[in-house]
Amino acid sequence: MIDDGDAKEIKRDYLDILEALLKNIQQKAKSKEIPTSNDTSIYAGGKQVYKGLVGQSPSKNLLTSEQLENINLAITDPKNSQGTISIKIGKSEVFRVQNGRMTNDLLGLAPPSQPNKVVTKERIYSVEALQKQVKVLQSKLQAQQKLVESIKETQQTPESLSKLIDQVAEMGKSLEKQQQLIENTQKALSKVNERSLPQVQNTVLQNWVGTVENQVKQTVKNVFERVKDVLTPEVSKLRKEIASLKSQVNEQITSFKDEVKYQTDSVRNELNQQVGNLTQELRTQADGVKNTVEQSLMGVKSAIDNTRTELRAAVDDVKGQAIEQSVKALLNILGKDNPDGSKSFKSTNFDFERLGDNVIVRAKNGEAVLTDGVLSPNVSEKQLQALDKVQSVVDMHHQIENNAQQNSEFRAIKR
Are 122 and 187 contacting, i.e. CB atoms less than 8 angstroms apart? Predict the structure, then answer.
């Protein structure tokens, strides 16, 4: 229970805090060249709870200690404030925070924000919980130690050794995590030990707060020392044992690798010797076969070339004769009679001419491409394709004549 003397001290603190707040508002307003002759009004939750001038008795003061605390919180830590806090000078609003969001700070009352500052909270584990985690690691280490001892007596496979390496590495990671938990706990305890409660002007409250703060710091210090004294030796011992275990496993693996390498090298040398002998023998036989095959291939190639030449000549001869017949038919249909008794016809690509039984086809550059049924060796594939179409023109003309004759016969019948 707070006696009358303490109550007066608390009220005095309340008034001191209010006066400091109003003076701060006045100073900020002057620095912003805002007139301070008007009343300063404070609103909490939409209701006016204070109105007055600095240094004078307020015309209205309904502020409670809780509201004053919330106003200070809105200014120093807006995000964690609740409700709506508004401050006006005259009719002009110079500060407003609503549900943790600042919408107006014309005076610059709030401290500058630090967006890049990341606040991390370290979890504090009890000494007992940390001890249990260390014991689990110790039991795992003992099991792995037995497995390593068994390796020395029995032949291991690469798979089992690889699995063992992974298990030991995982234990090392678990130890590092455990060490990190212990360090985080110690850091968090150190922060608690270094933290100070806000300064209180009331001497009675200040003495009481100081006593509580000292008791809390002493408790934290005791826990910190227990973590340091109880767990640090165990973790150090674990780290040495895991390092020793890694060394033993690495020795076993090195020995296993050396043995495998020796056996592999021996087998490789023997195989290389056998492969070398076989390769030499096969190379000798292959060279003989290669010479025989090459001679046979040369003979076959020569025969094929001769056959191809003869076949092409035969094809060209047949093709040339066929084109000659098509040209004769074309000249009979479209040819122009010349004074020398010859017939001639000119198309887009060729000049066609027939004198007696002799037929000659010339390209537009004057070069002969067909003479008496024999194709020129310089004739191109494109020219051959164009000459092949001569027969199509002849066939189309014959079809037109047949259709005309049929139409004439049909008209005669109708008559």
Answer: yes
pTM: 0.31
Tokens 């826990």 — which residue? 223
User: How far, in Å, CA of 277 to CA of 284, rounded?
Assistant: 11
Bridge partners of residue 135, in order along the sequence = none
| Helix 232-334 / helix 381-388 crossing angle, nearest 10 deg | 50
For 255-289, write each residue's pLDDT tens digit: 766 776 777 787 778 778 887 787 787 788 778 77
**pLDDT tens digits for range 387-407:** 888 888 888 888 888 888 888
- Residues 242 and 141: beta-carbon distance below 8 Å: yes
d(CA 129, CA 181): 11
Burial classification of residue 89, based on how many CB atoms lie within 10 Å of its CB (0-12 exposed, 13-18 middle, 19 or more buried): buried
d(CA 124, CA 141): 26
Question: CA–CA separation, 100 vs 382, rounded Å?
Answer: 88
The 368-371 sheet, strands edge to edge:
336-337, 343-346, 350-355, 358-363, 368-371, 374-375
Gap between the Cα atoms of 289 and 292, Å rounded: 5
Residue 344 confidence (pLDDT) above 80: yes
